[in-house]
């Protein structure tokens, strides 16, 4: 897996079964499942052998948040956080534990404060409470 050198907005996946280029903005979430990474977009799921830490440089300064150790969520694709569930644009629902939910909800609230009608004199909001949680 690597980023396209000409287009930093894409992630390349190369496995024995599939070769694909995924637009980063289309990614809803990335989940670590053992040694595999599952990348979920609205329409597809991609699996490859890698680690979330390898992807961190690609996701810097974007709307990605590490909701728990093995899960990165794209806040730009989140529709709602409610009752320990994350609902995405595609209708996919992902359940997380209470402690991770509270932290993620707080970070999502701060993320939303950076958009109308909450924009305040162009000030940027820091989404993460803990710098290790947010991929930036």
Please give the order of strands in the largest beta sheet. 6-5-4-8-7
Head-to-tail CA distance between termini = 20 Å
Q: What is the subunit organization of this protein?
A: single chain
> Unreliable segments (pLDDT under 50, ≥5 consecutive)?
124-129
Largest sheet: 5 strands, antiparallel
Structural class given helices, strands, pairing?
A: alpha+beta
Number of DSSP strands?
A: 11
What would the average pLDDT be, to the nearest integer?
A: 85
Helix content: 10-25%
Q: What general outline do the C-alpha atoms trace?
A: globular
How many independent structural domains?
Answer: 1
User: CATH superfamily, called what?
Assistant: LytTr DNA-binding domain
Radius of gyration: 15 Å
CATH topology: OB fold (Dihydrolipoamide Acetyltransferase, E2P)
CATH class: Mainly Beta
Please outline the helices and strands.
Layout (H helix, E strand, L loop, with lengths): L1 E2 L6 E5 L4 E5 L3 E7 L2 E6 L3 E5 L2 H8 L4 E5 L2 E4 L3 E5 L2 E4 L4 E3 L2 H15 L24
Antiparallel strand pairs: 1-2, 2-3, 4-5, 4-8, 5-6, 7-8, 9-10, 10-11
């Amino acid at each position: 897996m690597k980023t396209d050198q000409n287009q930093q907005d894409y992630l390349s996946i190369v496995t024995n079964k599939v070769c694909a280029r995924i637009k980063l903005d289309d990614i809803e979430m990335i989940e670590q499942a053992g040694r595999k990474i599952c990348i979920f977009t609205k329409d597809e799921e991609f699996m490859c052998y890698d680690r979330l830490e390898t992807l961190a440089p690609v996701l810097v300064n974007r709307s990605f948040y590490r909701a728990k150790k093995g899960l990165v969520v794209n806040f730009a694709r989140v529709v709602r956080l409610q009752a320990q569930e994350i609902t995405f644009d595609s209708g996919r629902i992902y359940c997380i534990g209470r402690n991770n939910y509270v932290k993620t909800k707080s970070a999502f609230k701060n993320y939303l404060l950076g958009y109308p009608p909450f924009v305040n004199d162009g000030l940027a909001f820091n989404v993460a409470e803990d710098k290790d949680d947010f991929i930036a």
